[in-house]
Structure formats: C-alpha cells, structure tokens
Design goal:
The chain is 10% helix and 31% strand. The protein is mainly beta and 165 residues long. The chain has a four-stranded antiparallel sheet with strand order 1-3-7-6, with no helix packed on it. Strands 5-4-9-10 form a four-stranded antiparallel sheet, with no helix packed on it. It has a three-stranded mixed sheet with strand order 2-11-8, with no helix packed on it. The chain is globular. The N terminus is likely disordered.
C-alpha cells in the first residue's frame, strides 16, 4: 500500500511539473475553442446557422449546395473566428429542412472550391421543445439523426426555460 501511495505521489509531482498551456475559446470564458474545420457546427437542425470557412480565406460570393436538393448563394462576411480569435472570411447559411442524417456539402466561390464529406456534417430533425417547470416531455414517432460514426443526435430547444436551477 505504501509503495502504491509513493508511486501516486511521484506521478502527481511529475504531472505538476509539466508546463501548461492556456486555452481560450475567444469568447471570454474558459471553455476550449471549437476544433478548426471547414464547417461549424458539424450538425444542424432546420433554421440553425451553419458557418463555412473557405480555405483560401477570400471575400466574395459563394454558392453552397447542401445535399442535392438545396442550393443558395451567400456573400462571405468578415467575422472573428472563435476557434483562434482571428478575423476571417466566413460564409454563413441557414440550415434547410432536408432528410436527416449524414449530408455532403459543396461550396464554390472566388477561391478554391471545397467539399464537406457526409462523414463531417449531419442534418438533424427539428429540436424537441422543452417547457419551463417540472414535468415530462414525450416525443411520439420520433426519428433521431445518426452521424456517419453512429452517434445519435437529439436536439433540444431550451429557450422557454428561464428559472435559475
């Protein structure tokens, strides 16, 4: 038992001596930044905002094709990227109502065209709306989106919940 305690204390001493790096999400809080990618978030319900980050970081008009059934044109906007705090050109689109599940995206613009594989983006169903107060929410005949790597997504709308917990 004593040897085990000594080993644990030695391990903790080594870990405490390691240099640490500060992580900042860029929003003023202490949570880690979102992972860098060409699309954020990696999933969206109809009406949610989806942001694309052109790899060439150029301004101009972009054509975004989500699945085969939805196409829109948007101008890039100069905004701060919360992943690294730097300003970048971003293409902001509202997620359309499409069949749920992994969805491929194509983005064409003034720079290099790019694609988001269906393994990297998932269209979700509309969120389940939760109400203020104690109770239960029942969703009948509910179909949940499943990502390409088999994660079940259940979006919840908690905007009606305002009381402090």
């Amino acid at each position: 038992m004593r040897n085990r305690c000594l080993m644990m204390m030695s391990l903790l001493s080594v870990l405490a001596a390691l240099p640490t790096t500060s992580v900042d999400a860029g929003c003023g809080c202490a949570k880690p930044p979102p992972p860098a990618s060409l699309v954020r978030p990696a999933f969206a319900s109809p009406g949610d905002v989806v942001t694309f980050f052109p790899p060439d970081n150029r301004s101009g008009e972009y054509e975004v094709r989500i699945s085969e059934s939805y196409k829109t044109k948007r101008n890039a906007v100069w905004k701060r990227d919360l992943s690294d705090g730097q300003y970048k050109w971003q293409v902001v689109v509202t997620a359309p109502r499409l069949p749920i599940g992994p969805t491929a995206i194509e983005v064409k613009g003034p720079g290099r065209d790019f694609k988001i594989a269906s393994s990297d983006f998932t269209i979700m169903q509309a969120p389940i709306v939760l109400q203020q107060g104690d109770g239960e929410t029942v969703a009948k005949c509910y179909s949940a989106a499943v990502t390409a790597d088999h994660v079940v997504l259940v979006p919840l709308d908690i905007t009606a919940i305002t009381d402090h917990m």
